[in-house]
Amino acid sequence: MTINIILLGPPGAGKGTQARKLVEERGMVQLSTGDMLREARSSGTEMGKRVAEVMDRGQLVTDEIVIGLIREKLAEGGKGFIFDGFPRTLAQADALGALLDETGMTLDRVIEMQVDDEALVRRITGRFTCGNCGEVYHDETKPTAKEGVCDVCGSTDLKRRADDNEESLKTRLLEYYKKTSPLIGYYYAKGKLASIDGLAAMEDVAAQIDKALSEA
Hints:
Blueprint: E1 5-8, H1 15-26, E2 29-32, H2 33-41, H3 46-56, H4 63-75, E3 81-84, H5 90-102, E4 109-114, H6 117-125, E5 127-130, E6 136-138, E7 158-159, H7 166-179, H8 182-189, E8 193-197, H9 202-214
Parallel strand pairs: 1-3, 1-4, 2-3, 4-8
Antiparallel strand pairs: 5-6, 5-7
């Protein structure tokens, strides 16, 4: 069954982790705005050149360009799409809805990953990743078996994001609540929203998502 979903939640809620599980287990296609922009920039296509020009000027990529990139990805087909990092605003939600209508596709479920801000700060400030394979770790909840060495690939290139600190995270949370949280009411009114506990154990979160999708 083909199903298209949006993952909503503040930075650090675990959207990327759950998207990867859905890709692995259901064969869905993850549409991450950041990944699409990086891919387009190095592609050499006309759209890629537009992206590169905007980013090289230090400007924000327009909604029109992002929708164009999504249109290209949808045309490639797949076993359902996961929108991760888009939409972020009500205007983007309207644009995505119009694109799906245009392509004869549906949005089946919007998963809101609810979190407690203080717990989220603890989660993020303890997070680090493997620079080689991308595996994510945490000082308290998921340390590496051997200090300084990735469990998956054995790399010692473990790193923390520069903005994974309390001050930066609170700024990012404020931005999320101002611009993105109105989408929760928007999709609730459309009957698409399912809210889950984003701070539960990873497998519990995955089970909640599976349940929400089975009810879509």
